[in-house]
Automatic annotation (TrEMBL):
PANTHER family: SLR0284 PROTEIN. InterPro entries: Phage_holin_4_2. It comes from Paenimyroides marinum. It comes from the Bacteria. Pfam families: Phage_holin_4_2. Keywords: Membrane, Transmembrane, Transmembrane helix. The chain crosses the membrane at residues 5-22, 28-46, 58-82, 88-110. This is Putative membrane protein.
Length: 113
C-alpha cells in the first residue's frame, strides 16, 4: 500500500513540476503516473550501469557527475513516454534536482520526521 501511495504522490509532484518548470511538459495525470513508473524502472535497471561505468569521472567531479546521470535518465524517460516531453539537457537537470528535493521534503513530512 505504501508503494502505491508513494507512486501517486510522486505522480502529483511530477505533474505539478511539469506545469511550473520551463522545458518540461506532461500531457495529463495519467502520463505522469506512467512517467513515475518508467523512471522507477530506469533508476532500477539503467542507472546502476551508468554509475558503474562513470566511477572515474564521478570521483574526479566529487560526485557531481551523478547529477548528469540523473538528467540523462530523465531525458531517456522523455524519449520513452509519449506524453512526457523534455526539451533538452538543462531542463532535465533542473527537473531532476527539483524533483529530488521535493520528494525528500514530502517523504519527510509523510514519515513524520
Amino acid at each position: 500500500m505504501r508503494i502505491l501511495i508513494n507512486l501517486i504522490v510522486t505522480a502529483v509532484i511530477v505533474f505539478l513540476l511539469a506545469n511550473f518548470l520551463p522545458g518540461i511538459s506532461v500531457d495529463g495525470f495519467g502520463s505522469s503516473i506512467i512517467v513515475v513508473i518508467v523512471l522507477a524502472i530506469l533508476n532500477f535497471l539503467v542507472k546502476p550501469i551508468l554509475q558503474l561505468i562513470s566511477i572515474p569521472i564521478t570521483i574526479l567531479t566529487l560526485g557531481l557527475f551523478l547529477f548528469v546521470i540523473n538528467a540523462l535518465i530523465i531525458m531517456l524517460c522523455g524519449s520513452i513516454v509519449g506524453g512526457f516531453h523534455v526539451e533538452g539537457f538543462f531542463p532535465a537537470l533542473l527537473f531532476s534536482l527539483v524533483l529530488s528535493i521535493v520528494q525528500s521534503i514530502v517523504g519527510g513530512l509523510m514519515n513524520g520526521d
